[in-house]
Every structure is written in C-alpha cells, then in structure tokens.
Amino acid sequence: MSDLSAVKALIFDVFGTVVDWRTSLITDFMWWSRQRGISADWTALVDGWRAVYSASMDDVRKHPERGYVMLDDLHRRSLEKLVEQFAIKGLTDADLDYLTKGWHRLNPWPDSVAGLTRLKTKFVISPLSNGNVALLTNMAKFAGLPWDLIMSAELFEHYKPDPETYLGAAKLLCLKPGEVMMVAAHNGDLAAAQKNGLKTAFVARPTEYGPHQKVDFEATGAWDIVAKDFGGIADKLGC
Hints:
Blueprint: E1 9-12, H1 21-36, H2 42-51, H3 53-62, H4 71-85, H5 93-100, H6 112-120, E2 124-129, H7 133-143, E3 151-152, H8 153-156, H9 163-172, E4 180-184, H10 187-195, E5 199-203, E6 225-227, H11 230-236
Parallel strand pairs: 1-2, 1-4, 2-3, 4-5, 5-6
C-alpha cells in the first residue's frame, strides 16, 4: 500500500459499489407490478436498462451542442424505448415515473452503511456518481447513507470517466487530487481517477450484474488499496 497520509476525502462510485442496483430494482418492480396487476419480465428489463446506460451518456458527450442531460432524464428515455421493445402494456405516465425513480430507491450492500460510518470518522465522504443530485440525495435518505455532501456528475456537466468529474470533485473540496481517494468496484473508474492524480481503492462486488457479470471480479490495476468490503478499507485507513 502506498503512502496515503495526505488523503483527506474519500469519494465513491455508487451504482454497484455502494448500492445493489440490480436486486433492488428487480425486487421493487416485481412487488409494485403485483399491486398494479401488470405482468412483465422485470429481470430482463432491468438488465436491458443497465446495458444501455453507458451508451446514453456517450450520446450526451457526442452532442455538447444539445447541452447536458441529467441521468434521471436519460433513464426515462431509455425506459420508454425498453417498455415498447418488451411490449409492456398499460403503463401510465405516473407508472413510468415510478419505475424511473426506482433508481432513487436502491438498497446498500450489507457492509456499506457501517463501513461508510467508520470512514466518516476520519475522512470527508461523498459520492462521485453519474447519478444526478436529486437521485443521490433521495437514495441517501432511502438507504441511510451517511454522506457529508453530495457530488454528482450533474455539478460538472460531465459524466465519468471525463476528467472534469474527478478534478472537479477535488476542486470543490479545496483539495489537491492526491488528497482525494476514489473508491469503486469498477477498475475502469479507478483507472480514470488514477490518471487524474487521485488515490484509488478497489472493492469487489462480484454479484453486481448477477449471472451477467463479466468483469471486475478482482482488481486489475495498481490501486492503492484493495479490500473485500468497506470495512476492509476502513481497517487499512485506520478508522
């Protein structure tokens, strides 16, 4: 482990790293659809929804002339296409809103809240997520995530892994990049953070994508910390 004595803040990827988006959404939608009397393959819809996540953000990058579009709006656009593709009938606008807001109601991994609470005793902790501010704020209330502040791609009008996100987070905290540690379950996210001078911590979430998981079973880069969960990161940082 490298010298981390200068680190003052930890920033976290959220979807998959802090919260279990897949199980949360599938369980939520199955319960909700039973109350509404609507039948659909919610597992396939959720997997399909996440599969177009990166492409939806890439489209924003490719068309700066259209302006920044926050993740709630990208999720809604993708959902409308998937509902048509899966031929799900009988959904009202309020139903589509409920489903879109499912991303606001995600459950944390079992170690997340306790681990974050320990890390908060020594460091400033914040998300650095592609989720918009309202989404991340509502999620924190729902899941009991003890953030000190909410940092979102929306604040910088750039999605990760654009440098503006990582460097923007450090700037907002009045810290140098090397005083900030990015925590993620995704090697690609950490590679981008490291390239911009941030410290890095990897925690594996091998069930994030369920049976569809293909990458990120283990650390593949020279990260400053590799741990099995947030408690392990806290151990290594003396919290």
